[in-house]
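To: structure desk
From: M.T.
Subject: fold request, one chain
Message: Could you run this one when you get a chance? Sequence is below, nothing fancy, just the single chain.
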Amino acid sequence: MEFSSAILTREKDQRLEKARKWLAHEGVDLNSDFINIAGDASFRRYFRLTLNGESRILMDAPPPGENVEPFVDIAGRLREAGLHAPKIFLSDLANGFLLLEDLGDDLYRGLLHKDNANDLFPSLFDTLKTLALDTNTKNLPEFDHQKFRRDMGLFPDWYLARHRKQQNSEWLERVWDDFCHHIIQSAFDQPQAFVHRDFHSCNLIRTRRGEIGIIDFQDAVRGPVSYDFISLIWDRYISWPRLQIVQWMETMRLKLGLDMEPMEWQRCCDLMGLQRNFKIVGIFARLHYRDQKEGYLEMIPRFYEYLTSTLRLYPEFKDVLVYLERPECEP
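Reply: Done. Structure tokens follow.
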């Protein structure tokens, strides 16, 4: 989720007119215009407004493309676990509106830098522990084989074929299929837990009371315990030194009480990082070409570097690395 400050007045936005009528029907006294504060890779929108002197957030998730029910469900699970998901004051599930607690604008994206990582990461690791060990996963969707393959398929389909104009050769398909098999098997071999699926600095907010607020969690699943951890440490804005990443891996292994040797856990994290970062490169290309969203192609090189630097650590994936390092494939 990205924050901005554009004010939407009462012009011809039919969704906002519908939201105003809904709030009025609920007896809410709207004291301000809607201030557009956020947008993300979906079609959801978020607005800040003042109600009876209190700041609130309106989520606008237009059906049928969006569905607020998973957000409501996951918010309840997180709050039951003692985590700070936004409180939901009002909901109109049929029309895709939620009135939420305002957690503020203090994103960890702007807070976190190389000089304060050792101060901020311990509490974030505690949050990851609570997500993994204390958050209810009953009836959550499973991060199953089909989801993994769909995620991995974004890279050859949207980055290689669409963005780099590379045709999928029989050799590439064979190498890629074998590579995907290893990645997915590693995901299933590790403990399964609650997975936020997008746990990174743009979805974490330091609230006015100094707590860690969590947002954009509606796609949560039950899946590999390493997933949220690697989402945090392979960040879109800061590249951490490998030595630091390995140290954090060990910190997290001990915090989660995993019955794994350090090198086994390190491999799980690295392979999970490969899966997620291949997906991200593919998604960024798709957001540019299919959804006509700006600014995503410019972020690809950082994640491409994550891919190649991690692949160099695993000789068994040399064929994938060689292909990625071809000039016609590099960003």
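Reply (cont.): Residues 1-12 have pLDDT under 50 and may be disordered. Let me know if you need anything else for the meeting.
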